[in-house]
Design goal:
CATH superfamily: Ribonuclease Z/Hydroxyacylglutathione hydrolase-like
CATH class: Alpha Beta
Strand content: 15-25%
Radius of gyration: 17 Å
Mean pLDDT: 94
Structural class: alpha/beta
Largest sheet: 7 strands, mixed
CATH architecture: 4-Layer Sandwich
Order of helices and strands: EEEHEHHEHHEEEEEHEHHHEHEE
CATH topology: Metallo-beta-lactamase, Chain A
Helix content: 25-40%
Number of strands: 14
Strand order of the largest sheet: 6-5-4-3-2-1-14
Shape: globular
Length: 267
């Protein structure tokens, strides 16, 4: 059976870029880092920029689109995004060839080579943001970050996955006691901001089945979180309901690094 490879090139408040590929199809979810950093990350995976077949964008915020235009122009890569994202993205990505401007729609399956890609609505303060559920060879991966709160759409698309990248953005106490100005604290903690470590852990327990083998905690805040705190919070919540973590447990769990390819997962 054919394999799917997954790796985070960047994940966090300062940039996001995720690689998902097979032998014949290679895509990025977001490119919120410089073109040079994206190329460096791909090089660590043994992949050249010209091998990328498409970039699927979750939403128009800078930490998700900064390198999108550069990569598209340099390698003639098609960019997929919702119409709302396209309406709010042009100034940030620059000129994109008309044939590389592709639209996706939440709830409508997009067939792309071996992949069946399902965009789904996420609650975030962007124009028309989506997460992505990707199927190939009978295997499923879901990328869900920038989630202010858990919705039925998010739950449905995170269930029955082999691999889930889920936002574990902040520790609520660190936000309250940290240096952010009050309006920014309200945004982060609000229904259209970001998912806390605790709510991330609770959601994993709600959707975890025997099929789920890999959980990647992503989009950590550099100011209001630490990798150890994110990991230990979810681990404690999961173990509290009998879910064991590790190679000999029920599920493997990792924390995505802010930059650089620290781990390649094959499913």
């Amino acid at each position: 059976m054919s394999e799917i490879q997954f790796a985070t090139i960047a994940s966090g408040s300062k940039g996001n870029c995720i690689y998902i590929g097979t032998e014949n199809t290679k895509i990025l979810i977001d490119a919120g880092i410089s073109g040079k950093k994206a190329e460096q990350g791909l090089s660590e995976l043994g992949i050249k920029g010209e091998e990328i077949d498409a970039v699927f964008v979750t939403h128009e915020h800078n930490d998700h689109v900064d390198g999108v235009g550069i990569l598209s122009r340099r390698y003639d890569i098609p960019i997929y995004a919702t119409e709302g994202t396209w309406d709010n993205m042009p100034e940030k990505v620059g000129q994109i060839r008309e044939n590389n401007r592709r639209a996706v729609y939440a709830g409508e399956m997009c067939a792309f080579n071996e992949f069946s890609i399902q965009p789904f609505n996420i609650p975030h303060d962007a124009a028309q943001p989506v997460g992505y559920r990707i199927n190939a060879f009978g295997k499923t991966l879901t990328v869900a970050t920038d989630i202010g709160h858990i919705t039925d759409d998010v739950m449905q698309n995170c269930r029955d996955c082999d691999l889930l990248l889920l936002e574990s953005n902040h520790d609520v106490g660190m936000v309250h006691n940290g240096p952010y100005p009050y309006p920014l604290k309200r945004r982060v903690l609000g229904d259209f901001g970001h998912l806390s470590n605790e709510n991330c852990g609770k959601m994993i327990t709600d959707i975890c089945t025997s099929r789920l083998k890999y959980v990647v905690l992503g989009h950590l805040s550099g100011e209001n979180n630490t990798p150890m705190l994110a990991y230990n919070t979810s681990k404690a919540i999961m173990q509290g309901v009998g879910i064991e973590i590790g190679d000999n447990g029920d599920v493997n769990m990792y924390v995505a690094a802010p930059f650089g390819v620290k781990r390649r997962i094959t499913i």
